[in-house]
Amino acid sequence: MRDSYRKMLEKLHIDLIGLGALCEEAIGNAVRGLIEENTASREKVAELEQEINLKERMIETFCVKLLLREQPVAGDLRQITAAQGIIANMERIGDQAADIAKLSVFMVGSAVKSDIHIGDMARAAIKMLSDSVDSFVGSDLDKARRVIEYDDVIDRLFDRVKEELINLILTDSNHGGACLDLLMIAKYFERIGDHAQNIAEWVVYFITGAKC
User: Fold this and answer.
1) 3, 31, 81, 198: which sits with the fewest CB atoms below 10 Å from its CB?
2) Inter-axis angle of helices 141-171 and 118-137, to 10 degrees?
3) pTM here?
4) H helices then E strands: how many in the chain?
């Protein structure tokens, strides 16, 4: 019975890695849709969001089965609890990738996005997500803690982008619509960073049993 339960926990680990890969793919496509104005990438995000939502529900159901099947010991319980927290944040990342893709349609042909540090925000968000997933895959406590610290970087970038957009509007009010769309996009990147930080905090909890 215990061997069977251990295999189920290993399956949970593999499923979480797969969900993380889908989230990384969704963000990558959303960024290409925005920066490179790639139509196919934007459209791919919608498909990936649906796949992420489906996989999130499947993993959540699997976690409940694990909890009901056998009284888990402390370490196993932490793994399952952390998994539930991680998948909830990954599902939100998928939603925000889709939101970015939808707004990027209105940025096609706009030169405004090249005048601000939105690309730096995108790269920072991707780094945080990738590193948070890697910290889970490798049970890497140091990397998880670095992700948590790195959230300050993306917060500073958001403040910089916000200031740049305000200055653009003050310089030329015709940029108002594009600037507001970009501000929303920047906010979504900031939230992705927040969710990546949350994932890393769940990794810390899974490894140490202590919440950040």
Assistant:
1) 3
2) 170
3) 0.93
4) 6, 0
